[in-house]
Design goal:
- The protein has five helices and twelve strands.
- It has helices spanning 39-50, 78-87, 130-136, 154-164, 204-216, and strands spanning 14-19, 24-27, 30-32, 54-59, 71-74, 93-96, 103-105, 124-126, 143-150, 169-174, 186-193, 196-203.
- An eight-stranded mixed beta sheet has the order 5-4-1-6-9-10-11-12, sandwiched between helices. It has a two-stranded antiparallel sheet with strand order 2-3.
- Bound molecules: cytidine-5'-triphosphate and calcium ion.
- Residues 78, 96, 98, 100, 102, 127, 129-131, 146-149, 161 line the site of cytidine-5'-triphosphate.
Length: 219
């Protein structure tokens, strides 16, 4: 057990964490997804638990181990994730670490599409932006923490997401760093708010702990 738990800075707080990829089905055997491992989101959930929070972890398909003592809810699509987040939107803190697909097929076929009958193009539509929805429906005192995965203009793009989505904090990742990214156990991030920016580097577990202690140091 950790030093924290019942007397930690998040004791008595309900924290919702989303993690992992989403899958947007084209047909029963094919989908659009991304390489998110869920490691960073799971690390955020464990760090929040160690600080005393009552954590609900809503996650897409991952192969990593479920954390003990945390309520987990499995989802597949961005739409399912959106519905579960809406069900838990009374949380004191929401951490959107999930790699949500931005697009989903306009139509999901109920049977496997056969290649000789298929059109080679797939029509897509946008998924709901869950973090923006949370930002538009923010509860009193609720803290929203988003992530940003960028391959260029890291700080500029992350700052833009902070404002556009009405988030309180953005954890910005550069996919260009050697020691960070989807499958790695390590990460190097910039943690930004409207008037604060710090760099944190290390194992994902350590980065998660430092992100939350920076945000909740005075609470
Ligand atoms: N996010 C979300 N719903 C979506 C897409 C993203 O809630 N449909 C959240 C992610 O979980 C993350 C944040 O928004 O916390 C930023 O995600 P990112 O993919 O970096 O930004 P986008 O706004 O999708 O912009 P783009 O992919 O074009 O950079
Ligand atoms: Ca995106």
């Amino acid at each position: 057990l950790s030093q924290y738990r019942s007397n930690g800075p998040l004791a008595g707080k309900k924290v919702v964490v989303t993690a992992g990829p989403t899958r947007e089905h084209i047909d029963p055997v094919r989908f659009i997804s991304n390489p998110s491992s869920g490691k960073m989101g799971f690390a955020m959930a464990k760090a929040a638990q160690n600080m005393g929070a009552d954590v609900t972890l809503i996650h897409g398909p991952v192969t990593i181990e479920k954390p003990e003592g945390i309520t987990t809810i499995e989802i597949e699509s961005a739409q399912e994730l959106f519905e579960q987040v809406q069900n838990h939107s009374d949380a004191n803190v929401v951490i959107m670490a999930a790699a949500v697909s931005d697009f989903t097929p306009k139509e999901t076929h109920q049977q496997k599409v056969k290649k000789d009958k298929a059109d080679s193009s797939i029509q897509l539509k946008k998924t709901p932006d869950i973090l923006s929805w949370l930002g538009d429906h923010k509860n009193d005192g609720q803290i929203l923490i988003g992530f940003a995965m960028e391959t260029e203009n890291l700080l500029e793009n992350a700052k833009d997401k902070l404002e556009r989505k009405n988030a309180d904090w953005i954890v910005a990742n550069s996919l260009n760093d050697d020691d960070s990214g989807f499958a790695s156990d390590k990460n190097k991030v910039h943690l930004l708010s409207k008037n604060d920016s710090i760099q944190i580097e290390g194992l994902k577990s350590e980065v998660a702990r430092q992100v939350l202690s920076h945000i909740f140091k005075n609470s």
